[in-house]
Amino acid sequence: MSIRLSRRKTLILSAAGAVSLGTRLAAQQEGLRLAFIPQENPDKLLGDVAAITGWLADQIGVPVEGFVTIDHAAAVEALRNGDADISFMGALPFVLAEAEIGAVPLLSEVYRGAPSYTGRIFVRRDSGIEMLADLRGKDIAFADPISESGYLYPLAEFVEAGLVAGPGDADAFFGRIFFAGGYQQAMQAMAEGLVDAAGASQYADLLLTPQQQAEVIWIAESEPIPSHVVIARPELDADLRSRFVDAMMRLNEAGNRDLLRYLYGPDGYVRADPAAYDGVRDMARRHGLLG
Amino acid sequence: MIRKLLGFVIFSLAGAMVSFGPAIATPAKEVPWLPDTAAYRLTLFLGNLEPLPWDDVEAAWSEPYRNSEFSADALTWLGEKSDIETGPLLDAMARRDRQSLFAAATRLIALRIEEELGRALDVDDAASAQQAVRTARELYRAFADGVAAADPEASRRIGLAWLELNSSTGSAGVLGAGTTPPDRETMVTARAVISDYLAENYLVDDFALRQQLSPLPETALLSGRDIEVPPSLPPGSDIFDQDPLPLLVLNFEAQGIDETDLPLVAYGDMLFDSAQIFGSPARDLGIACSTCHNRSDVNQRLFIPGASHQPGAIDVDGAFFNPIFNDRRDDPLDIPSLRGLRFTGPYGRDGRFASLRDFTRNVIVNEFGGSEPTPFMLDALIAYMLEFDFLPNSMLTRDGRLTDAASEPARRGEAIFTRPFEGLGDRSCASCHVPDGNFLDRQAHNIGSASPPYEGARASAFDTPTLLGTAYTAPYFHDGSLPTLAAVVDWFDETKSLGLTDAERSDLTAYLEAVGSADEPYETFDAKNTSFRLAFSELTTFASTLDTLLPRRDAEHILLLTDTVAADLSADASTMSNLAGRPEVYALAERLAQVGSAVRAGDWETAEAHWTAFRDAADTIEERAF
């Protein structure tokens, strides 16, 4: 499989060096370039990038530059051609990037004590739905067709339960399948009664109002999904890579924890275990995303 | 996608939109509003204030809304993202024409939705189409609660259309894998559902006259039906508790007396946290006494556009809370601390109420539009508030002198504080802030901190405020115009010609900081001693008053309690760190609601049984309540 980049993405990438801190790099190995992927608001991310790269430069002792890419594909392309040394990435795009360019996992994000989370199937408490089989012929909203916890892993629970034959056969079991565009939209659709169930991250009910939270329950939970990962291009100098990882691990110290909010807000980082992504690799293969 | 979620959760609890329904005192963090949508909602909110704050309306479009994640203001944002003309909007604002403003702003947002929907259909790549649909949907949020209130069926139809649209837009996949093409036919059909409704209701050439600006659809308004859109606060509002949370010092508690043995006080404590005692909109928004007076102190972050001129200030006799009590004066006050309340009368910034009971009734009935409180409710509230103590401060003796724990500069400042000055009429600072009288004199003085409201007015005197605990209650003066205690010293030095040297000003500031200090000013939380544990402990204490109220068959006050506490307990569960413990807390809240249901039905035996079950369950859960 190859990474296909549209011309538009490439243009945005080349113009995306909006944030830099310290001396502009004279040569690649004199510093680090970090690629960030926006979530909701790229505007806010720019300020966060400036804050964290400044701290990292002090810690590592080399200039650190950060830039915002349009999406995962642009970040991987930047790693491939050396425009970026390090990138923040989801587990699924990482395993694809690993296969494509040999990307190396360095650090995993920790939330609520674990470098993993799960996907769940949520329903309204008063719906009478108690198990996955009760959803036969009913409507469900997932977050997005390439979301680990918002589609791939929750759907696997239906396969595991023998209700759905495989990734391509879900239509035969459900009434309608919607992709709502995100956890929050999927959960809202379920809470408001537009659909009967939602497949989303284990924490997605926290995106509902407090009253709605009391009105929903979950009836199935997926196996653990590795959380987001910080990855490097394979050629990155080993010493620099090691100093970067050491600096990032210092974010776990009490005095530095405030800085985590500039990095997508995890509770901390652990050194990544490449084997932890085997499940994601298998999942990607089953869905035909990985050869 | 975990990031997208946890990015919200990390700040506190997250919520989808403003909380509607039963009044609870747990605000939900909102998903950020787009700049143009935020400006529209601010326009609706401000447009209902009387007199209409036109400068604020203009600022809503020309400045980023407060705490916005976007650096751009709405007009700049529109300039960058849209081809829609803003001329009609600017013209309406220039002419200060409220109806035209409503019409232009409403059409602008509707056109923006149409613009993004058009983009979603025009672009070739799925990622851009998805983004356009997302933006359109975020814009539609401007009208969503109006549609839901007026026409649930249409609301559902449109909700499904958004789902259809998003699902049929295709997927860009991940790194080029797993792409799916758009289903244009379905997209067009789904878009039509949304566009047709907009055309009929929000893209109207000549809107009917709005008495009240709201997102209600035009057809609903023309129907003449009486439809109420649930009240909401506009973007930029903040009614969360301040962080760090002030420490509450209750006299009885510090003496080791258990609140559950003081049912009147415990009931008053509940009322202090209950939005039910107020009228709408405060009640529907979950605003209680404790929203402004966190743990008997202040809330430095509280902000409501049009009612607050800065954080920590609010105009409680403006147009928003109780229109009949609107004094038509833009005079927000810095929220005063209630610590040591029994020593600080008379009440109100200018001491207008000699009686705390009269003051409290005025807050409930006039300022916040509540029903007349029963004598029992007033007794309870006052019994509770009279327990508010000042924060212990080991730098002060009982008669208000500095101890050896205070710094040298503070001790030098103490001498300045008690020195008479010509500019103070040969009085000293201590003449009014009497050290052995809790640093106040219970009198109102006109020190020139406010401009006279009209020529010849003698109406700008304010009660001498205590200096105790003030290190944590910035800003200062009735309107919060001075940001620091140092600024207060500078103000007196300059306006009263005290002639202090720089060193003396610094020493006097050190003294004020020492007097205003506390050994423990804030609540401390850790992994298990969480803010939810504190809430759980409080709410179960409130419920303990049922031991007194059930035998008295006091249905009115029982129902006020169960309605408040059951809803709060359930809502507060969303703030738990121990997520696995939530179902137990929901069940507990339901048990308390069942006490209320049984009392409503006049079935006292069942009510007693549910109350016993609640008590037993609460004891069992307590350990996991964090």
Write the layout of secondary structure elements.
The complex is a heterodimer of chains A (291) and B (626).
Chain A lengths: L6 H8 L17 E5 L5 H19 L3 E5 L3 H10 L4 E4 L1 H11 L2 E7 L5 E2 L1 E6 L15 E3 L5 H13 L16 E3 L3 H9 L5 E5 L8 H6 E6 L3 E2 L2 E4 L5 H12 L18 E4 L6 H9 L5
Parallel strand pairs in A: 1-2, 1-3, 7-8, 7-9
Antiparallel strand pairs in A: 3-12, 4-12, 4-13, 5-11, 6-9, 6-10
Chain B lengths: L1 H8 L25 H13 L6 H9 L11 H8 L5 H9 L2 H25 L3 H25 L1 H17 L15 H18 L16 H6 L27 H4 L8 H10 L9 H4 L3 H4 L20 E2 L18 E2 L21 H12 L7 H11 L22 H10 L11 H4 L11 E2 L16 E2 L21 H11 L6 H14 L15 H13 L2 H4 L5 H18 L9 H19 L3 H18 L5
Antiparallel strand pairs in B: 1-2, 3-4
Helix pairs in contact in B: 2-3, 2-4, 2-6, 2-7, 5-6, 6-7, 6-9, 7-8, 8-9, 12-16, 12-21, 15-16, 17-20, 19-20, 21-23, 23-24, 24-25
In angstroms, what separates the terminal alpha carbons of chain B? 27 Å
* Radius of gyration of CA atoms of chain B, rounded to a whole number: 28 Å
Helix content of chain A: 25-40%
Q: What is the 3D form of chain B?
A: globular
Q: Main beta sheet of chain A, described?
A: 6 strands, mixed
Distance between the termini of chain A: 7 Å
Output the radius of gyration of chain A. Answer: 20 Å
How many domain modules of chain B?
4
CATH level 1 name of the largest domain in chain A: Alpha Beta
CATH superfamily of the largest domain in chain A: Periplasmic binding protein-like II
Spans of at least 5 consecutive residues with low confidence of chain B: 1-22
Task: Count the domains of chain A.
Answer: 2
Quaternary class: heterodimer
Number of helices of chain B: 25
- Structural class of the helices, strands and pairings of chain A? alpha/beta
% residues in beta strands of chain B:
under 5%
Architecture (CATH level 2) name of the largest domain in chain A: 3-Layer(aba) Sandwich
CATH-defined fold name of the largest domain in chain A: D-Maltodextrin-Binding Protein, domain 2
